[in-house]
Design brief:
Length: 336
């Protein structure tokens, strides 16, 4: 019977997306080709991460990025792989990476209708100590055939057609949404294929975990301070929440998606726009959270309604279980 015999009806990510895309007759497999190149990048980074220490891939690359962060070797390596895979797919026109100061405009002979914004390696501070890290991506379409410009990516997150992340942890998991729910695929290294293991992920309506860097507490504003206080000292006699904070957004968001709860990267006095970048961290995770029945809030508005002015713009972000985010929205509303 099915349990012990090898499951022979392998639902690979490619097959899954082809099924999904067949609902859109106009897509002549372009999205599937784009996705297969993103998947190639993820497989490469997964294998590089797994042998980082052995392949002397840990430590600094000796350069700093536009964010003012010292680039790790894996930051640079994964960025190179994704840029090359996306350009060679022949399905993209504009690429924005955390690691590149300027957007990449694909030369006309290789242009396609998608624009991809991505964080090639998320959680770099955790590389050298072997804690889970990831890749985050969001996808826009470009409906015109003029010269591509940054206007093709400086769009609200509500115009994204797909978003996802890959987490390089105890297993390698790719979580993806193309607008019809959230689905999780686990890499089977013996096949080199991402197999559907978590169909239609829904985040619990309420959770009992909060995830924030408490080290910034002295710089938080009133509503955030009040919310975290309530997590620790509930007024209504309910049990205090647990604190879980990995420091890799992908890992903290993945746990929030599966277990429920809330992830916060608030504004603080030092960084009024918080730390996380709108295009390739906030938007993709907000997209996934809404598709999974949760929500994502900036302290002022629905995260997906932000319209970025610059490709590396930052925003505060509160995302996770629907009811938990409602509570912090009420605190900010009371502050207005
Ligand atoms: P990146 O490594 O891509 O620059 O992202 C790091 C981000 C994110 O992964 C995480 O949630 C956040 O930095 C942690 O920031 P703190 O160390 O300030 O808590
Ligand atoms: Mn970084
Ligand atoms: Mn990141
Ligand atoms: Mn990064």
């Amino acid at each position: 019977h099915e349990a012990d015999a090898y499951r022979t009806d392998l639902m690979t990510i490619t097959r899954f997306v082809l099924n999904e895309q067949s609902k859109y007759p106009e897509s002549r497999g372009d999205f599937t080709i784009l996705l297969s190149n993103i998947v190639l990048g993820c497989k490469f980074v997964c294998s590089a991460v797994n042998k980082a220490g052995l392949a002397k891939l840990i430590g600094l690359a000796g350069d700093t990025n536009i964010q003012g962060e010292e680039q790790k070797k894996l930051d640079v390596l994964s960025n190179d792989v994704f840029i090359k895979a996306l350009v060679s797919s022949g399905r993209t026109s504009v690429l924005v990476s955390e690691e590149d100061e300027e957007a990449t405009f694909v030369e006309s002979s290789k242009r396609g209708k998608y624009c991809v914004v991505f964080d090639p390696l998320d959680g770099s501070s955790n590389i050298d100590c072997g804690v889970s890290i990831g890749t985050i991506f969001g996808i826009y379409t470009m409906e015109h055939s003029d010269e591509p410009t940054t206007k093709d990516v400086l769009k609200p997150g509500n115009e994204m057609v797909a978003a996802g992340y890959c987490m390089y942890g105890s297993s390698c998991m790719l979580v993806l949404s193309t607008g019809t729910g959230v689905h999780g695929f686990t890499l089977d290294p013996s096949l080199g294929e991402f197999i559907l293991t978590h169909p239609d992920i829904k985040i619990p309506k309420k959770g009992n975990i909060y995830s924030v860097n408490e080290g910034n507490a002295q710089n938080w504003d009133g509503p955030t301070t009040k919310y975290v206080e309530r997590c620790k000292y509930p007024k209504d006699g309910s049990p205090a929440k647990s604190l879980r904070y990995v420091g890799s957004m992908v890992a903290d968001v993945h746990r929030t998606l599966l277990y429920g709860g809330i992830f916060l990267y608030p504004a603080d006095k030092k960084s009024p726009n918080g730390k996380l970048r709108v295009l390739y961290e906030v938007f993709p995770m907000a997209f996934l959270m809404e598709q999974a029945g949760g929500q994502a809030f900036t302290g002022k508005k629905r995260a997906l309604d932000l319209v970025p002015k610059k490709i590396h713009e930052r925003s505060p972000i509160f995302l996770g279980s629907y009811d938990d985010v409602e509570e912090i929205k009420a605190l900010y509303a009371a502050e207005e």
